[in-house]
Predict the 3D structure of the following.
Amino acid sequence: MDLRAAFASISFPTKRLLAMADRWAKESTPSTSTHVAQPRYQRKQQPSLAERLGEADVQTLIHRYRAGTTAPKLAEYSGRGLSTVKRLLRARGVRLSP
């Protein structure tokens, strides 16, 4: 078998790959149809802690912290994590003590 004959026949997997490449090329070219791609599902953003607690509860947490309640006690009181409570206080402009 000479070299030309060895490369003259294309195997079935190669034919499938070439057909897929042709199909992709046709799909990627801009067409005149009015088909609009549907947006993918996007997970809804969860409301912030301040939105979930409500303004009155947030003000209560701030008031209690400024009155001397520690951040861990506030976290326990609100049923939230310590870092979450600290982040909420910082976002409202409260300076945290070390």
